[in-house]
Specification:
By secondary structure, this protein is of the alpha/beta class. The protein has 15 helices and 7 strands. It has 2 domains: 76 residues; 283 residues, Rossmann fold. The C terminus is likely disordered. The structure holds 2-acetamido-2-deoxy-beta-D-glucopyranose (2 copies).
Length: 407
């Protein structure tokens, strides 16, 4: 019996994958699930039959495939065959702080000619870049939501490049202006996120595309898992990143024939921009309290909103400070001969996407709730209702008792 323990576990694993795949298919297409289900069940039975007859052959094929895959991964991620940065120009947005500033420094050190945009030319970030980087780095002050500033940056870049094209565009600039229930978020929060994350990035990308096509270059966009998965309390930010993802994904196949490669980077949670700026979030919270309609404030309760804000701030304080996974992904996307479509950068992100891809919606939702903000308070109106229900139940119980007594 003991001889069969290993094959049994392998068998169980294969079966689990197949059954999970079938479940996923069924859950994904509510309407025409029956043919898919039948096909998957057929495949399951077939695998089971094959299993008993040719176990050694299957094991051998599995091992050979695994080894081939491993060798393939090793050679494609090997730094030896990276392209050279010499003579290549890269334009990066949002370099005041966070990923942008770190990437600008790193790309400059690798030998790229870097054009870095900042919001504030006299700010700490811009001064640090000027101090620490080579003479091949140029800083522009650009608010990407202002089309004339983007056009000016394009003219200035062209003036520097002469007849050369642009090898890389790193779309990094982005904001998260609010955190809270979708119903409590202001229209200005939704528009603020869209304005920068979607329309701003769109405007920069469209403007620089002729230069990128000329060089058969790369577009690297920093997005967020919040654009793929419904994180609670991040509706405004997530929706803007979802729009951005769709735009970039569409570009990917349209630009393929031009030789421009397009990648998206999906970082886990990092301390960037204002994410861990206590003053900033207190200000945003005050602004929200002042502008949310009184009836909503009454129904949700200020204590509920305060808890959300506190939970978010404590989550932001625990975020990762070492940006290297994201910066490495940017470099890979710019210099690998075969850049990936997506780079998952940071601790836990692969697992998060695994849950999101293979589990039913109920488990995915619960996972995101547990992972992100563990709210304890209910909105005020629901607490009242719960209290009311409890007292109703008590009354019912009393009635039942009375009835019994009467019988
Ligand atoms: C934090 O936010 C406040 C208010 O928006 C801002 O004045 C301040 O410069 C920010 N601090 C940093 C370090 O960015
Ligand atoms: C908000 O929540 C924090 C932490 O739970 C608490 O210390 C603080 O007193 C609360 N503030 C208000 C105004 O309720």
């Amino acid at each position: 019996m003991e001889d069969y323990i290993l094959p049994f576990w392998i068998y169980l694993a294969v079966l689990t994958v197949i059954v999970a795949g079938a479940l996923k298919k069924v859950l994904a297409c509510h309407v025409s699930a029956t043919p898919t289900l039948v096909a998957w069940l057929g495949a399951t039975v077939l695998v089971e039959r094959l299993w008993t007859f040719c176990l050694p052959a299957i094991l051998l094929v599995t091992v050979v495939l695994a080894v081939a895959f491993y060798l393939c991964c090793r050679s494609s991620s090997s730094p030896a065959i990276m392209l050279s940065a010499q003579g290549k120009a890269v334009f990066i947005t949002g370099c005041d702080s966070g990923f942008g500033k770190a990437a600008a420094k790193c790309l400059d050190a690798l030998g790229f000619e870097v054009f870095a945009t900042v919001l504030d030319l006299s700010g700490e970030g811009a001064r640090e870049l000027q101090r620490t980087c080579s003479g091949h780095l140029t800083i522009f002050q650009v608010d990407i939501t202002q089309p004339q500033q983007v056009q000016q940056a394009l003219l200035d870049t062209k003036a520097k490049l002469g007849l050369r094209g642009l090898w890389g565009l790193v779309n990094n600039a982005g904001v998260c202006v609010n955190f809270g229930d979708a119903e409590l978020s202001l229209m200005s929060n939704y528009r603020g996120c869209m304005e920068v994350n979607f329309f701003g990035t769109l405007s920069v990308t469209k403007s620089f595309l002729p230069l990128l096509r000329q060089a058969k270059g790369r577009i690297v966009t920093i997005s967020s898992p919040a654009g793929d998965q419904p994180f609670p309390c991040l509706a405004a930010y997530g929706a803007s990143k979802a729009a951005l993802n769709l735009f970039i994904n569409t570009l990917r196949h349209e630009l393929d024939r031009w030789g421009v490669r397009v990648s998206i980077i999906l970082p886990s949670s990092y301390k960037t921009g204002q994410s861990s700026n206590h003053t900033y979030w207190e200000q945003q919270y005050k602004n929200l309290l002042q502008n949310v309609p009184p009836a909503l404030l009454e129904e949700y309760g200020e204590d509920y909103m305060n808890e959300t804000k506190e939970l978010f701030q404590s989550h932001a304080r625990q975020a990762t400070e070492d940006f290297s996974p994201v910066i490495n992904a940017i470099v890979q996307a710019l210099l690998s001969p075969q850049p990936q479509v997506r780079y998952y950068a940071g601790p836990g992100i692969g697992f998060m996407y695994f849950i999101n891809s293979y589990c039913p919606f109920s488990i995915r939702d619960r996972f995101l709730q547990k992972l992100f903000v563990k709210k304890e308070l209910l909105p005020r109106a629901l607490r009242k209702q719960a209290g009311f229900d409890i007292s109703l139940n008590n009354n019912n119980n009393n009635n039942n008792n009375e009835e019994k007594l009467m019988q």
